[in-house]
């Protein structure tokens, strides 16, 4: 796989662009916008996916299966992160001397002429990027956007807009966010993660320093005052003396200050006053994400009262505490949480929704390396649930690490936690635990997301039988 390179190409310089792995959520996002901006696009993937039909209908040339002939007359190739070096199209492109870009480089070229809002952070990127986009649309602007999750309120995860503003999720997992040139950089939080790539926590922090250093003289860093890592980054950025910083959160020194009210309602204050906000999504983390979106909108000239009102349109992002259904009085949600902080936030939101009832979580660890680094922290987060069931590790891109299994988490779980077998065993364990009014949450970045509908089907079948 090509590694991210510094420097931004122009969209025109790419010529005809071929995407290897075009069905991926990130790749299809870039391809969709390129097609809308008049770039000749082709692409392929191992199997047919719904988004590929959408791209074909928009004008892209799409192939199912990989083969050198799919390159056609491409002048630039973009390879997805899952594409291996021996892929026949990638091998052919390299043999022909074609430039092969990382997805982030292709996205950087796509938004090179726009005012870029880049949203980074260890957690909350997709939700915050989605909130900013929905807010700007509600305020009458028409931003382009590229988001790493599907957003029901938007209908798609990427689109070309007419305003000259581009809102993009900036992924730090492989350092590729350093390919962007933002005018506004949002950092929701900074914690050690992706240590399989970075190696050390210090390298993670240094990468965020490099990210904020990309801001121009008239740029701004919007950072969360409540997160120690983001606050420390803001202080280091201010010390460099060449970038303006806007803090948001509940801290007394936050320029965009969040005030709690009853569930679903809050206030955000600025120098211009305090503005009531209603959110459809639960949890303190989502309230902070909303404050970040509000801060960005104000920076872009949106009136504060308009920004506050527009936040009510946001109904959530796919796999971010996403409601999957209900049966026998049990509500089932799914969340992408795959880091201890994210698991803690998702369970906090579940607890707020459950009220006096119980919360039951089915968690699937993602990556052997992450499990090794954070096993105890995962267990501590999961112990906030009444029932914590843990599946085997989802390996994703990694080979097994000797001695690293889900047992590393299970050994630190409380009385309500244990390992559980896959498939029907996991579903039956959740059914046995959950009662009317309770919340079931499936959590993780792997295929655990498939369990939510299975649980709902089992609940509704049981209700029908009763």
Structure description:
With 466 residues, this protein is α/β, with parallel strands linked by helices. The protein has three domains: 12-103, NAD(P)-binding Rossmann-like Domain (Rossmann fold, 3-Layer(aba) Sandwich); 114-313, Mur-like, catalytic domain (UDP-N-acetylmuramoyl-L-alanine:D-glutamate ligase, 3-Layer(aba) Sandwich), CATH 3.40.1190.10; 322-465, Mur ligase, C-terminal domain (Protein-Tyrosine Phosphatase, Chain A, Alpha-Beta Complex), CATH 3.90.190.20. It is 35% helix and 21% strand. A ten-stranded mixed sheet has the order 8-7-9-6-10-11-12-13-14-15, with helices on both faces. α13 (407-410) links the parallel β19 (387-390) and β20. The longest helix has 16 residues, at 284-299. It starts with 16 loop residues before the first strand and ends with a helix. Residues 1-6 have low confidence and may be disordered.
Provide a brief overview of the structure.
The protein is an alpha/beta fold and 466 residues long.
Chart the SSEs and their pairings.
Elements: E1 17-20, H1 25-36, E2 41-45, H2 50-58, E3 61-64, E4 76-79, H3 88-95, E5 100-101, H4 103-110, E6 115-120, H5 125-138, E7 144-146, E8 158-159, E9 165-169, E10 184-187, H6 195-198, H7 201-212, E11 220-224, H8 228-240, E12 244-249, E13 256-260, E14 265-270, E15 273-278, H9 284-299, H10 304-310, E16 322-327, E17 330-335, H11 340-354, E18 359-363, H12 368-382, E19 387-390, H13 407-410, E20 417-419, H14 424-433, E21 439-443, H15 451-465
Parallel strand pairs: 1-2, 1-4, 2-3, 4-5, 6-9, 6-10, 7-9, 10-11, 11-12, 12-13, 17-21, 18-19, 18-21, 19-20
Antiparallel strand pairs: 7-8, 13-14, 14-15, 16-17
Helix pairs in contact: 1-2, 1-4, 5-9, 5-10, 7-8, 11-12, 14-15
């Amino acid at each position: 796989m090509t590694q991210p390179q510094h420097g931004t190409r122009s969209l025109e310089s790419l010529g005809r662009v071929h995407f290897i792995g075009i069905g991926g959520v990130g790749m299809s996002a870039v391809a969709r916008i390129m097609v809308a901006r008049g770039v000749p696009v082709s692409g392929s993937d191992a199997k047919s996916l719904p988004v590929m039909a959408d791209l074909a209908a928009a004008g892209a040339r799409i192939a199912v299966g990989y083969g050198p002939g799919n390159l056609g007359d491409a002048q630039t190739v973009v390879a997805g992160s899952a594409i291996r070096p021996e892929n026949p199209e990638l091998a052919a492109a390299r043999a022909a001397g074609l430039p092969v870009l990382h997805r982030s480089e292709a996205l950087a070229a796509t938004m090179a002429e726009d005012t870029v809002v880049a949203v980074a952070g260890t957690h909350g990127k997709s939700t915050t990027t989605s909130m900013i986009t929905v807010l700007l649309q509600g305020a009458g602007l028409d931003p382009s956007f590229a988001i790493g999750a599907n957003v029901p309120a938007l209908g798609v995860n990427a689109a070309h807009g007419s305003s000259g503003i581009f809102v993009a999720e900036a992924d730090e997992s492989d350092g590729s966010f350093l390919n962007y040139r933002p005018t506004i950089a949002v950092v929701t939080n900074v914690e050690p993660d992706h240590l399989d790539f970075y190696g050390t926590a210090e390298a993670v922090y240094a990468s965020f320093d490099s990210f904020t250093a990309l801001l121009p003289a008239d740029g701004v860093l919007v950072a969360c005052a409540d997160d120690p890592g983001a606050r420390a980054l803001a202080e280091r950025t201010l010390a460099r003396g060449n970038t303006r910083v806007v803090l948001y959160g509940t801290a007394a020194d936050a320029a965009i200050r969040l005030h709690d009210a009853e569930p679903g309602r809050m206030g955000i204050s600025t120098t211009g006053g305090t503005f009531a906000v209603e959110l459809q999504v639960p949890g303190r983390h989502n309230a902070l994400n909303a404050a970040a979106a509000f801060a960005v909108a104000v920076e872009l000239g949106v009136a504060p009262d308009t920004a506050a009102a527009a936040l009510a349109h946001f109904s959530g992002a796919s796999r971010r505490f996403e409601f999957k259904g209900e049966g026998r009085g049990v509500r089932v949600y799914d969340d992408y949480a795959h880091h201890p902080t994210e698991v803690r936030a998702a369970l906090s939101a579940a607890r707020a929704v459950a009220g006096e009832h119980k919360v039951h979580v089915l968690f699937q660890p993602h990556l052997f390396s992450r499990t090794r680094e954070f096993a105890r922290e995962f267990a501590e987060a999961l112990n906030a649930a009444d029932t914590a069931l843990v599946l085997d590790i989802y390996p994703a891109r990694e080979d097994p690490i000797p001695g690293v299994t889900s047992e590393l988490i299970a050994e630190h779980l409380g009385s309500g936690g244990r390992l559980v077998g896959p498939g029907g065993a996991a579903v039956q364990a959740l059914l046995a635990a959950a009662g009317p009014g309770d919340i079931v949450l499936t959590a993780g970045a792997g295929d655990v997301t498939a369990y939510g509908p299975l649980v709902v089907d089992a609940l509704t079948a049981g209700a029908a039988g009763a």
